[in-house]
Design a protein that fits this description.
Blueprint (H helix, E strand, L loop, with lengths): L1 E5 L3 H7 L4 E4 L7 E7 L5 H6 L13 E12 L16 E16 L6 E3 L2 H8 L4 H9 L10 E5 L15 E6 L11 E6 L5 E14 L5 E7 L8 E2 H6 L16 E5 L1 H14 L6 H11 L3
Helix pairs in contact: 6-7
Length: 294
């Protein structure tokens, strides 16, 4: 799941005083629930600028304090009576269904929408009511609940890429399953020789089956068709973000490689740029979500 660091007293205004717009200089296509993080910055000027009686000693710093659903992003033209009071930036992130944690959870913030560590997210969800947790779990959620993105390098004789079709499910196999993967994780499918390219995107449905030889089977759902112009190895190796990624180094086929946030976003961005005219609207949305880190 993603979080957004907000300076005090504005984080307190969001979770306790009805602030339904968070102002930023940047836009985003992301929509869904995210965590609200009160940054460590103590600026008394911000408290003086706030027209509410909030004191620095009464609010937490350096902690996640709640959740909200990002419903829309507006500019000045889109301001309504409901958002007028709090809009003051180039872009306004419109917030709905704000939930305050019973107790703040300490966390180190970051720039933009940053990923919450699974253990921290678990602690935050424990500070909500059961009904609130259920609303978040039903989503949509920015970045999903603790999910990751993986490269799946399949052997053609084990995993037939010719059957990649959006909406279809299939069973894949690997001899070296990672410990950290889980259902719901995003996967980018790597096609072996002679293609040596990222060719499609999908999602892990199950990853708990094994046979007598120690092979691990995992069921996936293809979310896109095979790319008309795949993202090839030479392009990735030349890229400054992805060039040193583990899956590009020599090694056995049939393994699953973790991707960092930056690597998965970059690969999806390249796929979008190379296939602008050939992607269906549905396929484009899948790669846009990955490129946005959603």
């Amino acid at each position: 799941m993603r979080a957004l660091s907000v300076a005090q007293p504005w984080a307190e205004c969001i979770v306790a005083h009805g602030k339904n717009v968070e102002n930023r200089t940047w836009n985003t296509r992301m929509r869904g629930y995210f965590a609200i993080h009160a940054s460590k910055t103590r600026d008394l000027g911000r408290f003086r600028d706030c027209d509410l009686a909030i004191e620095p000693d009464d609010v937490p710093f350096g902690a996640i304090v709640g959740f909200a659903r990002l419903a829309d992003v507006i500019t000045r033209r889109g301001v309504t009576p409901r958002t007028r009071r709090w809009f003051g930036g180039t872009y306004g992130l419109v917030l709905e269904d704000v939930m305050r944690l019973r107790a703040p959870v300490p966390a180190t913030g970051g720039l933009g929408f940053w990923r919450v560590k699974p253990r921290t997210l678990h602690s935050c969800l424990a500070e909500l009511t059961a009904a609130e947790r259920a609303r978040i779990e039903r989503g949509p959620v920015l970045g999903n609940l603790g999910t990751r993105t993986w490269i799946v390098k399949g052997r053609i004789d084990w995993n037939g890429h010719d059957f990649v079709r959006a909406g279809r499910t299939a069973r894949w196999v690997t001899r070296k399953p990672p410990k950290e993967w889980s259902p719901g994780d995003t996967v980018l499918f790597w096609k072996g020789r002679p293609c040596l390219s990222v060719v499609a995107a999908g999602r892990i449905l199950r990853c708990d089956e094994r046979d007598a030889k120690g092979n691990a089977y995992f069921r996936v759902k293809y979310l896109t068709r095979e790319l008309a112009t795949p993202v090839d190895m030479d392009t990735l190796r030349r890229d400054r973000v992805v060039g040193d990624a583990g899956f590009l180094k020599s090694g056995p086929a049939g393994t699953v490689f973790p991707l960092s946030d930056a690597e998965s976003r970059r690969i999806a961005t390249i796929a979008l740029a190379r296939n602008r005219s050939s992607l269906t609207a549905a396929d484009r949305r899948v790669f846009e979500r990955i490129a946005d880190g959603a």
